[in-house]
Amino acid sequence: xxxxxxxxxxxxxxxxxxxxxxxxxxxxxxxxxxxxxxxxxxxxxxxxxxxxxxxxxxxxxxxxxxxxxxxxxxxxxxxxxxxxxxxxxxxxxxxxxxxxxxxxxxxxxxxxxxxxxxxxxxxxxxxxxxxxxxxxxxxxxxxxxxxxxxxxxxxxxxxxxxxxxxxxxxxxxxxxxxxxxxxxxxxxxxxxxxxxxxxxxxxxxxxxxxxxxxxxxxxxxxxxxxxxxxxxxxxxxxxxxxxxxxxx
Length: 248
Hints:
The chain contains 6 helices and 6 strands. By secondary structure, the protein is α+β, with helices and mostly antiparallel strands. It has one domain (27-218). The longest helix is centred in the last third of the chain and has 20 residues, at 182-201.
């Protein structure tokens, strides 16, 4: 069995952690998110929320027909792309609404078999400007689709790139669990970057923040807030998958 360690890094240095990043022990201290707003259509996403002077991510939408091949391959394993992922990754308008203090970019990689789980897959969708951080949709065999992060590249740049060696032990040691699903990841990434630009970069008052960001800050300032009790589902490795690399 493999359980990814939880980890969160985005824009804010969280005062309740020694390094500012949230590891497996401090992840519970992150503010809970307004899950009742998450319907897959991103109606909560306010364009330009960080201000006109913020750095917003350049859109790189993929066409809907281009996702058909991915969906067909996933369907053979009984899996499907989340509706929220399809909606967001095919929309230039949604993508350009996300500010990024590290100038991250959108780019979908080829679908890659998981090295540690039968019928699981990896799909990289975001990277930082320096190529030091990568973000993946993990399509698990049980149908869940958490977002993973890593400083390592686990998917090829294109379909013709077959030189990428994906060692299971390296993947298990490097990949961290960032969010239980795609929309929750996008929301936390968005709201923290909005706060960073207003409060840290431009030193504007908290009152200038959009309401969702004000509520997030208020939760951060509430020491007795409920623990964020979300955990990765352990993965069961199987050697029966012909697409899977040998483990150990």
